[in-house]
């Protein structure tokens, strides 16, 4: 029994090829009937094909410094978690922690002003540095900053009893699991300095504050809740602003923050210390190595099938 061939015979292919060859040359014109089949692809169609036009080579150093920003944010979460741990286990009083937070915020504010003023000042130029600092202090909207602090303290203190009871009925295990998940959302949507659709500073900050509210329900008093929320604002809002001014020293910041995080976790649990250490190694060494290695296989193609880009000549 002879099999049924539903394909096109070689003779018909040859006749079709001869018919097409005898016609006028194909042009890239969709609104004109040139006598070619709808699925015909001419050899000249790929003449405008271009590959890897805007691809930039990435070095391991660049990938390492970029991944250090993720580690910095992870360290901030560790610092905040340690503050909660010490408060929850009565290892430090909320009054002492609140005073420490106020002192830290004041020092950080002064340091932020100094670093911002000396950003464009040459080294070892004392006169220019002093002049730049005085000018920066005069330009500060001190009244607005003071009002913001007062409003936060008043509203935070008044709303703390309400915030403490929001998730009080939820079990502790659920609270901890939810906090880990929400902190993951905070890290995913955090602004690491790249323009991307997934970046959302407001969502990242709100996720961190919500995680703080969840943990606040495990504390003893409303004042403890107020202190934890203050700690949350200091870590997740003000600390990234200060670190953005120190972006020229990423390696130094990474070493300091990672060392402090390892020391703090070591005082709490050695297993957590090992997990954090492995995470730092994975984020800062393994991931950059794999990224640089796999980046060599990146292959972007550009051709006549891309959307037309209309340039504004006005």
TrEMBL record:
<keyword id="KW-1133">Transmembrane helix</keyword>
<feature type="transmembrane region" description="Helical">
    <location>
        <begin position="272"/>
        <end position="292"/>
    </location>
</feature>
<keyword id="KW-0812">Transmembrane</keyword>
<feature type="transmembrane region" description="Helical">
    <location>
        <begin position="250"/>
        <end position="266"/>
    </location>
</feature>
<dbReference type="InterPro" id="IPR009450">
    <property type="entry name" value="Plno_GlcNAc_GPI2"/>
</dbReference>
<feature type="transmembrane region" description="Helical">
    <location>
        <begin position="203"/>
        <end position="220"/>
    </location>
</feature>
<dbReference type="Pfam" id="PF06432">
    <property type="entry name" value="GPI2"/>
</dbReference>
<comment type="pathway">
    <text>Glycolipid biosynthesis; glycosylphosphatidylinositol-anchor biosynthesis.</text>
</comment>
<feature type="transmembrane region" description="Helical">
    <location>
        <begin position="175"/>
        <end position="194"/>
    </location>
</feature>
<feature type="transmembrane region" description="Helical">
    <location>
        <begin position="145"/>
        <end position="163"/>
    </location>
</feature>
<dbReference type="GO" id="GO:0006506">
    <property type="term" value="P:GPI anchor biosynthetic process"/>
</dbReference>
<comment type="similarity">
    <text>Belongs to the PIGC family.</text>
</comment>
<keyword id="KW-0472">Membrane</keyword>
<feature type="transmembrane region" description="Helical">
    <location>
        <begin position="63"/>
        <end position="84"/>
    </location>
</feature>
<keyword id="KW-0337">GPI-anchor biosynthesis</keyword>
<dbReference type="GO" id="GO:0000506">
    <property type="term" value="C:glycosylphosphatidylinositol-N-acetylglucosaminyltransferase (GPI-GnT) complex"/>
</dbReference>
<protein>
    <recommendedName>
        <fullName>Phosphatidylinositol N-acetylglucosaminyltransferase subunit C</fullName>
    </recommendedName>
</protein>
<feature type="transmembrane region" description="Helical">
    <location>
        <begin position="96"/>
        <end position="124"/>
    </location>
</feature>
């Amino acid at each position: 029994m002879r099999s049924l061939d539903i394909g096109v015979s070689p003779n018909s292919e040859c006749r079709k090829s001869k018919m097409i060859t005898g016609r006028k040359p194909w042009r890239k014109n969709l609104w004109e009937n040139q006598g070619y089949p709808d699925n015909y692809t001419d050899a000249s169609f790929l003449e405008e094909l271009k590959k890897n036009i805007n691809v930039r080579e990435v070095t391991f150093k660049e990938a390492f410094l970029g991944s250090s920003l993720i580690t910095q944010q992870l360290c901030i979460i560790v610092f905040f978690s340690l503050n909660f741990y010490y408060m929850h286990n009565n290892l430090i009083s909320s009054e002492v922690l609140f005073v420490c937070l106020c002192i830290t915020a004041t020092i950080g504010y002064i340091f932020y002003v100094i670093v911002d003023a000396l950003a464009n000042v040459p080294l070892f130029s004392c006169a220019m540095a002093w002049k730049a600092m005085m000018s920066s202090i005069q330009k500060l909207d001190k009244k607005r900053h003071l009002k913001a602090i007062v409003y936060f303290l008043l509203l935070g203190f008044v709303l703390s009893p309400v915030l403490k009871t929001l998730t009080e009925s939820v079990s502790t295990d659920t609270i901890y699991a939810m906090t880990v998940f929400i902190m993951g959302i905070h890290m995913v949507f955090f602004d690491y300095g790249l323009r991307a659709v997934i970046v959302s500073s407001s969502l990242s900050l709100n996720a961190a504050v919500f995680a703080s509210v969840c943990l606040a329900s495990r504390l003893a008093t409303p004042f403890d809740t107020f202190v934890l929320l203050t700690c949350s604002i200091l870590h997740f809002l003000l600390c990234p602003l200060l670190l953005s001014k120190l972006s020229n020293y990423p390696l130094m910041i990474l070493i300091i923050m990672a060392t402090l995080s390892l020391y703090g976790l070591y005082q709490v649990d050695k297993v957590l210390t090992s997990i954090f250490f492995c995470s730092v190694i994975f984020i800062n060494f393994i991931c950059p190595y794999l990224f640089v290695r796999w980046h060599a296989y990146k292959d972007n193609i550009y051709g006549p099938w891309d959307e037309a880009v209309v340039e504004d000549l006005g």
